[in-house]
Amino acid sequence: MTSKFVDIPIPPLVVEVEKWQLCFFAKAVGETNPIYFDEAAARAAGHPSILAPPTYAVTLSLCETDPYSRYRALGIDWCTMMHAQQRFDYFAPIHAGDCIRFQSRIVDFIQRRQGKLKFLIEETEAFNQREELTTRFRKTIVIRGTGVAE
To answer: Sheet holding 13-16: strands in order across?
Structure first.
């Protein structure tokens, strides 16, 4: 049975990567390599600007006014949601000054325990201004109880 949620188009999100955000994130995750917060060090290492730490793309993908609106539009009560798992695939680096377009889609929706536990699997691809795929990440969200009707 195919879920009504699978492959529903989610509008793309376009975000510019700002230096101060990269520096803040790098320090917050304990990064010590200067290519993540020093322009000169990044350029000396062959990068056009400060490099984004590996998991930064998922943080950047939440830079919208209401990151939960997509779930409410599907009738999902976000108060019943719990982030369960995240997987990353990396293809090209993200740098300060890049313009990243995120394209997300729900790839699976699984129900267990007579519908009391639901698993929503969402995949997001991030493309830079040159249309190069930089990152793909897949997250699994658990929806408890009657948070959504299938």
So the answer is: 13-16, 99-112, 117-127, 133-144, 81-90
- pLDDT score of 148: 58
Count up the domains in the chain and report the number: 1
Contact 37, 26 (CB under 8 A): yes
Both tokens of 86, joined, read 């995240």
Rounded to an integer, what distance in angstroms lies between the CA atom of residue 78 and that of residue 37? 34
* Domain range for 92: 13-18+53-144
Average of per-residue pLDDT across 91-105: 96
What pLDDT digit, counting tens, does each position of 56-89 carry?
A: 998 898 888 887 787 887 788 878 888 889 999 9
Paired tokens of 8: 């529903």
Report phi then psi at 47, rounded to 5: -95, 150
At 1, the pLDDT band (50, 70, 90 cuts) reads very low
Alpha helices per DSSP H over the chain: 19-28, 39-44, 56-60, 69-73
